[in-house]
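Whether sequence alone determines local backbone shape is best considered at the level of individual chains. In the encoding step, the backbone of a single protein was reduced to a row of integers, each denoting a local shape. For completeness, the protein is quoted in full, as a sequence line and a line of structure tokens.
***
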Amino acid sequence: MLRTLTTLLGALFVLQGIGWLVVPGRAAGGLGMPLLDGLGRSTQIGDFGAFFLVAGATMVLGARWQERVLLHVAAALLGCAALGRLVAWAAHGADLAWLFIAVELAVTALLLRTARSTP
């Protein structure tokens, strides 16, 4: 059951990453931000696309191949994203993105649990 849920979540992350490459305006809007211009747009599409593609691929492959290390990579990415959001709020005046933080921490916990249950 954990592997199946992890695989499905990973597929959603991969789709989000593809969205950054194909329809970046929609992907940006889904995360509550405008699509920037110039180098900012390049950074948004490149970095967010990479983040979601790598996180999703490591979730899917880690669950399918029963590779703990890959699940730990995805967990680290998401855990660091949650931490970065907290720093942005506490130190840089950003809004507290509690919903995104909650999702990132819940998926991180799922990934660590899936990794722990992997033989």
Q: What stands out?
A: The chain has five helices and no strands.
